[in-house]
Design a protein that fits this description.
heterodimer, A: alpha+beta, B: mainly alpha, 2 domains, 23 helices, about 75% helix, disordered N terminus
Chain lengths: ~80, ~475
Amino acid sequence: MDGERNLAELKVGDEAVIGRINTTDDKILKKLMALGVLPGMKLVLLQKFPSYVIKVGNTRIAADDSIARSIVVVKK
Amino acid sequence: MLKSERLEYGAFKYDDRIEKAIKEIESNLKSSYNVSKRTIALLLLQEDSEIQEMVRMRESSFSQISEIVKKTKMLFTEPLYYVITVQRQKKVDEIVSKVVYTRRDSKNRLSNWLDKITVQPLTGIPILLLVLYFGLYKFVGQFGAGTLVDFIEGNIFDTYVNPWVDRMVTTYISSEPIQELLAKEYGIITLGLRYALAIILPIVGTFFLMFSIIEDSGYLPRLALLIDRVFKAIGLNGRAVIPMVLGFGCDTMATLVSRTLETRRERILATLLLSLAIPCSAQLGVVLAMLSGNTAALLIWALCVLLVFLLVGFLAARLLPGERPVFYMEVPPLRLPRLGNIIEKTLSRMQWYFLEIVPIFIIASVLIWIGRMTGIFDAIIRLAEPLMVALGLPPETAEAFLFGFFRRDYGAAGLYDMKGSLTWTQLTVASVTLTLFLPCIAQVSVMLKERGLMTTAAILAFIFPFAFLVGYVLNLILNVTGVVW
Protein backbone atom coordinates (compact mmCIF):
# COMPACT_ATOMS: atom_id res chain seq x y z
CA MET A 1 0.00 0.00 0.00
CA ASP A 2 1.15 3.52 -0.76
CA GLY A 3 2.79 5.30 2.17
CA GLU A 4 2.85 2.16 4.29
CA ARG A 5 5.76 1.89 6.70
CA ASN A 6 6.53 0.48 10.14
CA LEU A 7 6.71 2.40 13.36
CA ALA A 8 10.51 2.35 13.45
CA GLU A 9 10.58 4.35 10.21
CA LEU A 10 8.60 7.24 11.66
CA LYS A 11 10.14 10.31 13.29
CA VAL A 12 9.40 11.42 16.83
CA GLY A 13 6.26 13.57 16.79
CA ASP A 14 4.84 11.94 13.65
CA GLU A 15 1.17 11.08 13.56
CA ALA A 16 -0.06 8.08 11.63
CA VAL A 17 -2.90 5.62 11.31
CA ILE A 18 -2.31 1.99 12.20
CA GLY A 19 -2.63 -0.13 9.06
CA ARG A 20 -2.07 -3.64 10.34
CA ILE A 21 -0.01 -5.68 12.76
CA ASN A 22 2.67 -7.62 10.94
CA THR A 23 3.70 -10.47 13.19
CA THR A 24 3.69 -14.23 13.13
CA ASP A 25 3.66 -14.32 16.92
CA ASP A 26 0.14 -14.94 18.12
CA LYS A 27 0.90 -13.74 21.64
CA ILE A 28 2.19 -10.35 20.49
CA LEU A 29 -0.83 -9.82 18.28
CA LYS A 30 -3.22 -10.60 21.13
CA LYS A 31 -1.38 -8.36 23.59
CA LEU A 32 -1.28 -5.44 21.20
CA MET A 33 -4.98 -5.88 20.53
CA ALA A 34 -5.67 -5.91 24.26
CA LEU A 35 -3.76 -2.64 24.58
CA GLY A 36 -5.94 -1.14 21.86
CA VAL A 37 -3.36 -1.13 19.08
CA LEU A 38 -5.75 -1.87 16.23
CA PRO A 39 -5.99 -0.97 12.53
CA GLY A 40 -7.68 2.33 11.96
CA MET A 41 -6.55 3.81 15.28
CA LYS A 42 -4.54 7.00 15.18
CA LEU A 43 -1.16 7.00 16.89
CA VAL A 44 1.48 9.54 17.80
CA LEU A 45 5.11 8.50 18.14
CA LEU A 46 6.39 10.19 21.30
CA GLN A 47 9.85 8.68 21.68
CA LYS A 48 12.19 6.14 20.08
CA PHE A 49 15.00 5.74 22.58
CA PRO A 50 15.65 3.91 24.88
CA SER A 51 12.25 2.38 24.14
CA TYR A 52 9.47 3.32 21.76
CA VAL A 53 6.61 5.22 23.35
CA ILE A 54 3.42 5.68 21.38
CA LYS A 55 0.10 7.22 22.20
CA VAL A 56 -2.95 5.39 20.88
CA GLY A 57 -6.23 7.01 21.84
CA ASN A 58 -5.65 8.06 25.42
CA THR A 59 -3.25 5.24 26.17
CA ARG A 60 0.53 5.48 26.21
CA ILE A 61 2.33 2.30 25.33
CA ALA A 62 6.01 1.47 25.63
CA ALA A 63 7.43 -1.14 23.28
CA ASP A 64 10.77 -2.46 22.11
CA ASP A 65 12.22 -2.45 18.61
CA SER A 66 10.79 -5.79 17.53
CA ILE A 67 7.25 -4.76 18.49
CA ALA A 68 7.67 -1.34 16.85
CA ARG A 69 8.69 -2.99 13.56
CA SER A 70 5.59 -5.14 13.59
CA ILE A 71 3.24 -2.16 13.75
CA VAL A 72 2.59 -1.09 10.17
CA VAL A 73 1.24 2.44 9.79
CA VAL A 74 0.02 4.76 7.06
CA LYS A 75 1.41 8.22 7.49
CA LYS A 76 -1.05 11.08 7.41
CA MET B 1 -32.87 7.97 21.43
CA LEU B 2 -34.95 7.41 18.33
CA LYS B 3 -36.05 3.92 17.45
CA SER B 4 -34.15 3.93 14.18
CA GLU B 5 -30.98 4.98 15.99
CA ARG B 6 -31.34 2.22 18.54
CA LEU B 7 -31.57 -0.28 15.73
CA GLU B 8 -28.56 1.18 14.04
CA TYR B 9 -26.39 0.99 17.18
CA GLY B 10 -27.96 -1.95 18.99
CA ALA B 11 -28.04 -4.60 16.29
CA PHE B 12 -24.39 -4.57 15.39
CA LYS B 13 -23.49 -7.04 12.68
CA TYR B 14 -20.11 -8.45 11.70
CA ASP B 15 -19.48 -9.00 8.01
CA ASP B 16 -21.54 -11.62 6.16
CA ARG B 17 -18.95 -14.38 6.30
CA ILE B 18 -18.70 -14.13 10.10
CA GLU B 19 -22.47 -13.77 10.58
CA LYS B 20 -23.06 -16.86 8.45
CA ALA B 21 -20.62 -18.86 10.54
CA ILE B 22 -22.26 -17.61 13.78
CA LYS B 23 -25.69 -18.79 12.54
CA GLU B 24 -24.35 -22.21 11.58
CA ILE B 25 -22.60 -22.70 14.92
CA GLU B 26 -25.64 -21.48 16.88
CA SER B 27 -27.81 -24.10 15.21
CA ASN B 28 -25.37 -26.77 16.37
CA LEU B 29 -25.42 -25.65 20.02
CA LYS B 30 -28.05 -27.76 21.80
CA SER B 31 -26.99 -27.40 25.41
CA SER B 32 -27.85 -24.28 27.42
CA TYR B 33 -25.13 -21.86 28.51
CA ASN B 34 -24.85 -18.97 30.95
CA VAL B 35 -24.34 -16.58 28.07
CA SER B 36 -26.08 -16.30 24.71
CA LYS B 37 -25.37 -18.81 21.97
CA ARG B 38 -24.15 -15.95 19.81
CA THR B 39 -21.46 -15.18 22.37
CA ILE B 40 -20.43 -18.83 22.53
CA ALA B 41 -20.28 -18.95 18.74
CA LEU B 42 -18.13 -15.81 18.60
CA LEU B 43 -15.75 -17.16 21.24
CA LEU B 44 -15.48 -20.45 19.33
CA LEU B 45 -14.60 -18.54 16.16
CA GLN B 46 -11.91 -16.71 18.13
CA GLU B 47 -10.61 -20.10 19.34
CA ASP B 48 -11.00 -19.41 23.04
CA SER B 49 -9.54 -22.59 24.53
CA GLU B 50 -11.74 -22.62 27.65
CA ILE B 51 -14.96 -22.36 25.64
CA GLN B 52 -13.71 -24.95 23.13
CA GLU B 53 -13.19 -27.39 25.99
CA MET B 54 -16.61 -26.67 27.48
CA VAL B 55 -18.39 -27.14 24.15
CA ARG B 56 -16.40 -30.29 23.40
CA MET B 57 -17.74 -31.80 26.64
CA ARG B 58 -21.34 -30.76 26.02
CA GLU B 59 -22.06 -31.02 22.31
CA SER B 60 -22.20 -34.20 20.26
CA SER B 61 -21.83 -32.10 17.12
CA PHE B 62 -18.48 -30.63 18.18
CA SER B 63 -16.73 -31.97 15.10
CA GLN B 64 -19.24 -30.21 12.80
CA ILE B 65 -18.70 -26.98 14.76
CA SER B 66 -14.93 -27.32 14.39
CA GLU B 67 -15.44 -27.82 10.67
CA ILE B 68 -17.41 -24.55 10.42
CA VAL B 69 -14.68 -22.66 12.33
CA LYS B 70 -12.03 -24.17 10.07
CA LYS B 71 -13.91 -23.26 6.89
CA THR B 72 -14.46 -19.69 8.09
CA LYS B 73 -10.77 -19.31 8.96
CA MET B 74 -9.88 -20.15 5.36
CA LEU B 75 -11.88 -17.16 4.15
CA PHE B 76 -9.52 -14.69 5.83
CA THR B 77 -5.77 -14.19 5.69
CA GLU B 78 -5.66 -12.89 9.26
CA PRO B 79 -6.63 -14.85 12.40
CA LEU B 80 -10.35 -14.67 13.19
CA TYR B 81 -9.91 -13.08 16.63
CA TYR B 82 -8.09 -10.26 14.88
CA VAL B 83 -10.76 -9.88 12.19
CA ILE B 84 -13.55 -9.87 14.78
CA THR B 85 -11.81 -7.36 17.07
CA VAL B 86 -11.03 -5.03 14.18
CA GLN B 87 -14.63 -5.03 12.98
CA ARG B 88 -15.92 -4.41 16.49
CA GLN B 89 -13.40 -1.63 17.04
CA LYS B 90 -14.47 0.04 13.81
CA LYS B 91 -18.03 0.22 15.09
CA VAL B 92 -16.83 1.53 18.46
CA ASP B 93 -14.80 4.27 16.76
CA GLU B 94 -17.80 5.19 14.65
CA ILE B 95 -20.02 5.60 17.72
CA VAL B 96 -17.39 7.33 19.84
CA SER B 97 -16.51 9.84 17.13
CA LYS B 98 -20.16 10.95 17.01
CA VAL B 99 -20.59 11.56 20.73
CA VAL B 100 -17.16 12.36 22.16
CA TYR B 101 -14.94 15.30 21.45
CA THR B 102 -11.58 16.11 23.01
CA ARG B 103 -10.78 19.53 24.34
CA ARG B 104 -7.19 20.66 24.24
CA ASP B 105 -6.45 21.34 27.87
CA SER B 106 -3.54 23.39 29.11
CA LYS B 107 -3.86 22.76 32.83
CA ASN B 108 -2.14 19.38 32.46
CA ARG B 109 1.10 21.00 31.42
CA LEU B 110 2.95 20.03 34.61
CA SER B 111 1.86 16.40 34.43
CA ASN B 112 2.72 16.26 30.71
CA TRP B 113 6.12 17.68 31.48
CA LEU B 114 6.71 15.15 34.27
CA ASP B 115 5.47 12.36 32.00
CA LYS B 116 8.06 13.38 29.46
CA ILE B 117 11.14 13.96 31.58
CA THR B 118 10.80 10.65 33.42
CA VAL B 119 10.98 8.57 30.22
CA GLN B 120 13.76 10.32 28.32
CA PRO B 121 17.22 8.99 29.14
CA LEU B 122 18.90 12.38 29.52
CA THR B 123 16.55 13.45 32.29
CA GLY B 124 15.12 10.05 33.23
CA ILE B 125 18.37 8.52 34.44
CA PRO B 126 19.24 11.38 36.83
CA ILE B 127 15.66 11.19 38.13
CA LEU B 128 16.07 7.44 38.60
CA LEU B 129 19.27 8.02 40.56
CA LEU B 130 17.52 10.61 42.72
CA VAL B 131 14.68 8.17 43.41
CA LEU B 132 17.21 5.50 44.39
CA TYR B 133 19.23 7.91 46.53
CA PHE B 134 16.35 9.40 48.48
CA GLY B 135 13.99 6.43 48.43
CA LEU B 136 16.42 3.61 49.00
CA TYR B 137 19.54 5.07 50.56
CA LYS B 138 18.18 7.95 52.61
CA PHE B 139 14.80 6.61 53.64
CA VAL B 140 15.31 2.85 53.85
CA GLY B 141 19.06 2.77 54.45
CA GLN B 142 19.59 5.67 56.82
CA PHE B 143 16.18 6.21 58.38
CA GLY B 144 14.88 2.61 58.47
CA ALA B 145 18.10 0.67 58.93
CA GLY B 146 19.79 3.41 60.97
CA THR B 147 17.52 5.56 63.09
CA LEU B 148 14.64 3.13 63.56
CA VAL B 149 16.81 0.06 64.12
CA ASP B 150 18.99 1.90 66.64
CA PHE B 151 15.90 2.97 68.51
CA ILE B 152 14.07 -0.36 68.59
CA GLU B 153 17.15 -2.46 69.16
CA GLY B 154 19.10 -0.19 71.47
CA ASN B 155 16.30 1.41 73.44
CA ILE B 156 13.81 -1.41 73.58
CA PHE B 157 15.52 -4.77 73.18
CA ASP B 158 18.98 -4.20 74.61
CA THR B 159 17.71 -2.11 77.51
CA TYR B 160 14.46 -3.81 78.45
CA VAL B 161 13.53 -7.00 76.63
CA ASN B 162 16.77 -8.98 76.50
CA PRO B 163 17.92 -8.37 80.11
CA TRP B 164 14.42 -9.18 81.33
CA VAL B 165 14.18 -12.40 79.29
CA ASP B 166 17.64 -13.46 80.42
CA ARG B 167 16.69 -12.84 84.05
CA MET B 168 13.41 -14.72 83.78
CA VAL B 169 15.03 -17.65 82.06
CA THR B 170 17.91 -17.99 84.54
CA THR B 171 15.47 -17.69 87.45
CA TYR B 172 12.79 -20.12 86.33
CA ILE B 173 14.55 -22.63 84.09
CA SER B 174 17.34 -24.73 85.48
CA SER B 175 18.37 -26.62 82.35
CA GLU B 176 21.15 -24.76 80.62
CA PRO B 177 20.40 -26.01 77.07
CA ILE B 178 16.78 -24.80 77.39
CA GLN B 179 18.02 -21.45 78.72
CA GLU B 180 20.13 -21.16 75.61
CA LEU B 181 17.23 -22.16 73.37
CA LEU B 182 15.13 -19.25 74.63
CA ALA B 183 17.58 -16.59 75.64
CA LYS B 184 21.28 -15.73 75.84
CA GLU B 185 23.32 -15.03 72.74
CA TYR B 186 21.42 -17.14 70.19
CA GLY B 187 18.01 -17.72 71.81
CA ILE B 188 14.65 -17.71 70.05
CA ILE B 189 13.63 -14.53 71.85
CA THR B 190 16.93 -12.74 72.28
CA LEU B 191 18.24 -13.51 68.77
CA GLY B 192 15.35 -14.73 66.58
CA LEU B 193 12.66 -12.30 67.70
CA ARG B 194 15.14 -9.49 68.21
CA TYR B 195 16.33 -9.77 64.61
CA ALA B 196 12.79 -10.08 63.32
CA LEU B 197 11.34 -7.16 65.26
CA ALA B 198 14.27 -4.84 65.85
CA ILE B 199 16.30 -5.16 62.66
CA ILE B 200 14.21 -6.63 59.88
CA LEU B 201 10.82 -5.10 60.65
CA PRO B 202 11.87 -1.43 60.44
CA ILE B 203 13.96 -2.05 57.30
CA VAL B 204 11.37 -4.10 55.45
CA GLY B 205 8.58 -1.80 56.66
CA THR B 206 10.25 1.34 55.32
CA PHE B 207 11.08 -0.45 52.08
CA PHE B 208 7.54 -1.68 51.50
CA LEU B 209 6.24 1.82 52.23
CA MET B 210 8.63 3.33 49.69
CA PHE B 211 7.84 0.62 47.12
CA SER B 212 4.09 1.20 47.46
CA ILE B 213 4.53 4.93 46.89
CA ILE B 214 6.66 4.35 43.78
CA GLU B 215 4.28 1.66 42.54
CA ASP B 216 1.15 3.80 42.95
CA SER B 217 2.71 6.88 41.38
CA GLY B 218 2.95 5.00 38.07
CA TYR B 219 6.73 5.27 38.03
CA LEU B 220 7.58 1.57 37.62
CA PRO B 221 6.56 1.27 33.91
CA ARG B 222 8.80 4.27 33.20
CA LEU B 223 11.67 2.54 34.95
CA ALA B 224 10.88 -0.55 32.87
CA LEU B 225 11.07 1.30 29.55
CA LEU B 226 14.26 3.12 30.55
CA ILE B 227 16.03 -0.09 31.49
CA ASP B 228 14.63 -2.48 28.86
CA ARG B 229 17.74 -2.36 26.64
CA VAL B 230 20.04 -3.23 29.54
CA PHE B 231 17.77 -6.03 30.66
CA LYS B 232 17.61 -7.47 27.12
CA ALA B 233 21.36 -8.05 27.35
CA ILE B 234 20.80 -10.29 30.36
CA GLY B 235 17.94 -12.18 28.72
CA LEU B 236 15.14 -10.33 30.49
CA ASN B 237 12.82 -7.53 29.39
CA GLY B 238 12.02 -4.24 31.09
CA ARG B 239 9.03 -5.78 32.81
CA ALA B 240 11.42 -7.78 35.03
CA VAL B 241 12.41 -4.54 36.72
CA ILE B 242 9.43 -4.98 39.06
CA PRO B 243 10.57 -8.24 40.71
CA MET B 244 14.17 -6.98 40.64
CA VAL B 245 13.38 -3.76 42.52
CA LEU B 246 11.14 -5.68 44.90
CA GLY B 247 14.13 -7.95 45.54
CA PHE B 248 15.89 -5.05 47.21
CA GLY B 249 13.10 -5.31 49.79
CA CYS B 250 12.70 -9.06 50.10
CA ASP B 251 14.15 -11.55 47.63
CA THR B 252 11.70 -14.18 48.79
CA MET B 253 8.69 -12.06 47.84
CA ALA B 254 10.45 -11.06 44.60
CA THR B 255 11.00 -14.71 43.63
CA LEU B 256 7.29 -15.26 44.16
CA VAL B 257 6.47 -12.22 41.98
CA SER B 258 8.82 -13.39 39.18
CA ARG B 259 6.05 -15.80 38.15
CA THR B 260 4.47 -12.83 36.37
CA LEU B 261 7.27 -12.96 33.78
CA GLU B 262 6.10 -14.45 30.52
CA THR B 263 8.55 -17.17 29.60
CA ARG B 264 10.08 -19.95 31.68
CA ARG B 265 13.51 -18.79 30.56
CA GLU B 266 12.94 -15.29 31.97
CA ARG B 267 11.64 -16.74 35.24
CA ILE B 268 14.75 -18.91 35.65
CA LEU B 269 17.10 -16.00 34.86
CA ALA B 270 15.27 -13.71 37.29
CA THR B 271 15.37 -16.36 40.03
CA LEU B 272 19.10 -16.86 39.53
CA LEU B 273 19.89 -13.14 39.63
CA LEU B 274 17.65 -12.55 42.64
CA SER B 275 19.33 -15.26 44.66
CA LEU B 276 22.84 -14.28 43.57
CA ALA B 277 23.20 -10.55 43.14
CA ILE B 278 20.21 -8.69 44.58
CA PRO B 279 20.74 -8.01 48.29
CA CYS B 280 17.52 -7.84 50.29
CA SER B 281 16.74 -4.77 52.42
CA ALA B 282 17.82 -6.41 55.65
CA GLN B 283 21.16 -7.39 54.18
CA LEU B 284 21.49 -4.07 52.41
CA GLY B 285 20.86 -2.23 55.66
CA VAL B 286 23.58 -4.11 57.51
CA VAL B 287 26.09 -3.85 54.63
CA LEU B 288 25.45 -0.12 54.30
CA ALA B 289 25.91 0.34 58.04
CA MET B 290 29.07 -1.75 58.00
CA LEU B 291 30.73 0.03 55.08
CA SER B 292 29.25 3.50 55.53
CA GLY B 293 32.40 4.90 57.13
CA ASN B 294 34.33 4.32 53.92
CA THR B 295 33.00 5.54 50.57
CA ALA B 296 35.60 3.63 48.54
CA ALA B 297 34.71 0.35 50.23
CA LEU B 298 31.01 1.00 49.61
CA LEU B 299 31.66 1.82 45.95
CA ILE B 300 33.81 -1.30 45.44
CA TRP B 301 31.07 -3.43 47.01
CA ALA B 302 28.34 -1.87 44.84
CA LEU B 303 30.45 -2.11 41.68
CA CYS B 304 31.36 -5.77 42.30
CA VAL B 305 27.77 -6.81 42.90
CA LEU B 306 26.55 -4.84 39.84
CA LEU B 307 29.28 -6.35 37.69
CA VAL B 308 28.40 -9.88 38.83
CA PHE B 309 24.73 -9.13 38.16
CA LEU B 310 25.43 -8.03 34.58
CA LEU B 311 28.11 -10.61 33.79
CA VAL B 312 26.26 -13.64 35.14
CA GLY B 313 23.03 -12.41 33.54
CA PHE B 314 24.79 -11.93 30.22
CA LEU B 315 26.43 -15.38 30.27
CA ALA B 316 23.34 -17.17 31.58
CA ALA B 317 21.24 -15.58 28.82
CA ARG B 318 23.71 -16.93 26.23
CA LEU B 319 23.70 -20.43 27.75
CA LEU B 320 20.01 -20.82 28.43
CA PRO B 321 18.03 -21.76 25.31
CA GLY B 322 14.63 -20.28 24.59
CA GLU B 323 12.82 -17.46 22.83
CA ARG B 324 14.04 -13.91 23.02
CA PRO B 325 12.07 -11.69 25.36
CA VAL B 326 9.81 -8.96 24.01
CA PHE B 327 8.79 -5.79 25.81
CA TYR B 328 5.54 -3.87 25.69
CA MET B 329 3.77 -2.20 28.54
CA GLU B 330 1.08 0.35 29.16
CA VAL B 331 2.53 3.56 30.62
CA PRO B 332 -0.06 5.11 32.92
CA PRO B 333 0.11 8.84 33.65
CA LEU B 334 2.01 9.84 36.79
CA ARG B 335 -0.37 10.27 39.68
CA LEU B 336 -0.17 11.44 43.23
CA PRO B 337 -0.57 8.22 45.24
CA ARG B 338 -3.52 7.91 47.62
CA LEU B 339 -2.51 7.61 51.23
CA GLY B 340 -5.15 4.99 52.07
CA ASN B 341 -4.04 2.69 49.25
CA ILE B 342 -0.40 3.02 50.23
CA ILE B 343 -1.06 2.18 53.85
CA GLU B 344 -3.20 -0.78 52.87
CA LYS B 345 -0.57 -2.17 50.49
CA THR B 346 2.29 -1.65 52.93
CA LEU B 347 0.36 -3.33 55.74
CA SER B 348 -0.68 -6.30 53.63
CA ARG B 349 2.92 -6.83 52.48
CA MET B 350 4.14 -6.58 56.05
CA GLN B 351 1.47 -9.02 57.15
CA TRP B 352 2.64 -11.46 54.50
CA TYR B 353 6.17 -10.94 55.69
CA PHE B 354 5.23 -11.66 59.29
CA LEU B 355 3.26 -14.79 58.54
CA GLU B 356 5.73 -16.24 56.05
CA ILE B 357 9.12 -15.05 57.20
CA VAL B 358 9.10 -14.56 60.97
CA PRO B 359 8.33 -18.25 61.66
CA ILE B 360 11.41 -19.07 59.60
CA PHE B 361 13.48 -16.83 61.90
CA ILE B 362 12.29 -18.90 64.84
CA ILE B 363 13.05 -22.14 63.02
CA ALA B 364 16.48 -20.79 62.13
CA SER B 365 17.10 -19.99 65.80
CA VAL B 366 16.15 -23.54 66.72
CA LEU B 367 18.41 -24.96 64.00
CA ILE B 368 21.29 -22.83 65.20
CA TRP B 369 20.63 -24.08 68.72
CA ILE B 370 20.60 -27.73 67.57
CA GLY B 371 23.76 -27.14 65.55
CA ARG B 372 25.55 -25.66 68.51
CA MET B 373 24.34 -28.24 71.02
CA THR B 374 25.31 -31.22 68.89
CA GLY B 375 28.66 -29.78 67.88
CA ILE B 376 27.75 -29.95 64.18
CA PHE B 377 28.32 -26.21 63.90
CA ASP B 378 31.79 -26.39 65.37
CA ALA B 379 32.65 -29.12 62.87
CA ILE B 380 31.34 -27.09 59.90
CA ILE B 381 33.05 -23.95 61.13
CA ARG B 382 36.37 -25.82 61.38
CA LEU B 383 35.86 -27.11 57.84
CA ALA B 384 35.06 -23.63 56.58
CA GLU B 385 37.94 -21.88 58.31
CA PRO B 386 40.53 -22.59 55.57
CA LEU B 387 38.04 -21.14 53.07
CA MET B 388 37.93 -17.92 55.10
CA VAL B 389 41.70 -17.79 55.28
CA ALA B 390 41.83 -18.16 51.49
CA LEU B 391 39.68 -15.04 51.24
CA GLY B 392 42.09 -13.21 53.51
CA LEU B 393 39.56 -13.22 56.35
CA PRO B 394 40.10 -14.22 59.99
CA PRO B 395 38.87 -17.78 60.72
CA GLU B 396 36.16 -16.46 63.08
CA THR B 397 34.21 -15.06 60.10
CA ALA B 398 33.27 -18.67 59.27
CA GLU B 399 30.56 -18.42 61.91
CA ALA B 400 29.01 -15.37 60.24
CA PHE B 401 28.98 -17.21 56.90
CA LEU B 402 27.38 -20.28 58.44
CA PHE B 403 24.66 -18.12 59.99
CA GLY B 404 24.31 -16.40 56.65
CA PHE B 405 23.17 -19.73 55.32
CA PHE B 406 20.14 -19.56 57.60
CA ARG B 407 19.44 -15.91 56.90
CA ARG B 408 21.64 -13.78 54.70
CA ASP B 409 21.21 -10.88 57.10
CA TYR B 410 22.12 -13.06 60.10
CA GLY B 411 25.47 -13.42 58.43
CA ALA B 412 25.84 -9.74 57.69
CA ALA B 413 24.73 -8.84 61.20
CA GLY B 414 27.21 -11.35 62.65
CA LEU B 415 29.92 -9.68 60.62
CA TYR B 416 28.76 -6.28 61.83
CA ASP B 417 29.46 -7.38 65.41
CA MET B 418 33.08 -8.08 64.38
CA LYS B 419 33.48 -4.77 62.59
CA GLY B 420 36.04 -3.43 65.01
CA SER B 421 38.54 -6.24 64.48
CA LEU B 422 38.48 -6.32 60.66
CA THR B 423 40.36 -4.21 58.11
CA TRP B 424 38.46 -2.37 55.35
CA THR B 425 39.73 -4.86 52.78
CA GLN B 426 38.41 -7.73 54.87
CA LEU B 427 35.08 -5.99 55.41
CA THR B 428 34.73 -5.30 51.68
CA VAL B 429 35.62 -8.87 50.65
CA ALA B 430 33.34 -10.34 53.32
CA SER B 431 30.44 -8.04 52.35
CA VAL B 432 30.70 -8.93 48.66
CA THR B 433 30.99 -12.65 49.34
CA LEU B 434 28.08 -12.63 51.79
CA THR B 435 25.89 -10.63 49.40
CA LEU B 436 26.44 -13.18 46.63
CA PHE B 437 26.41 -16.17 48.97
CA LEU B 438 23.42 -18.54 49.28
CA PRO B 439 19.93 -17.08 49.62
CA CYS B 440 18.12 -17.45 52.94
CA ILE B 441 16.05 -20.52 53.85
CA ALA B 442 12.76 -18.75 53.09
CA GLN B 443 13.91 -17.87 49.58
CA VAL B 444 15.16 -21.40 48.89
CA SER B 445 11.79 -22.81 49.93
CA VAL B 446 9.99 -20.44 47.52
CA MET B 447 12.48 -21.31 44.76
CA LEU B 448 11.72 -25.00 45.26
CA LYS B 449 8.00 -24.33 45.09
CA GLU B 450 8.14 -22.04 42.06
CA ARG B 451 11.02 -23.40 39.96
CA GLY B 452 11.30 -27.04 41.02
CA LEU B 453 14.07 -29.13 42.54
CA MET B 454 16.38 -29.38 39.51
CA THR B 455 16.51 -25.68 38.73
CA THR B 456 16.94 -24.74 42.39
CA ALA B 457 19.71 -27.30 42.88
CA ALA B 458 21.51 -26.09 39.75
CA ILE B 459 21.29 -22.45 40.86
CA LEU B 460 22.58 -23.20 44.36
CA ALA B 461 25.36 -25.43 43.05
CA PHE B 462 26.53 -22.51 40.95
CA ILE B 463 26.18 -19.78 43.57
CA PHE B 464 28.06 -21.48 46.40
CA PRO B 465 31.50 -21.83 44.74
CA PHE B 466 31.00 -18.74 42.59
CA ALA B 467 30.48 -16.42 45.61
CA PHE B 468 33.74 -17.61 47.12
CA LEU B 469 35.56 -17.36 43.80
CA VAL B 470 34.52 -13.71 43.46
CA GLY B 471 35.59 -13.03 47.06
CA TYR B 472 38.93 -14.72 46.42
CA VAL B 473 39.61 -12.75 43.23
CA LEU B 474 38.52 -9.48 44.85
CA ASN B 475 40.87 -10.06 47.77
CA LEU B 476 43.74 -10.73 45.34
CA ILE B 477 42.99 -7.58 43.36
CA LEU B 478 42.68 -5.41 46.46
CA ASN B 479 46.00 -6.72 47.78
CA VAL B 480 47.91 -6.59 44.50
CA THR B 481 46.73 -3.10 43.62
CA GLY B 482 47.66 -1.98 47.10
CA VAL B 483 44.21 -0.65 47.90
CA VAL B 484 44.52 -2.02 51.42
CA TRP B 485 43.43 -0.01 54.33
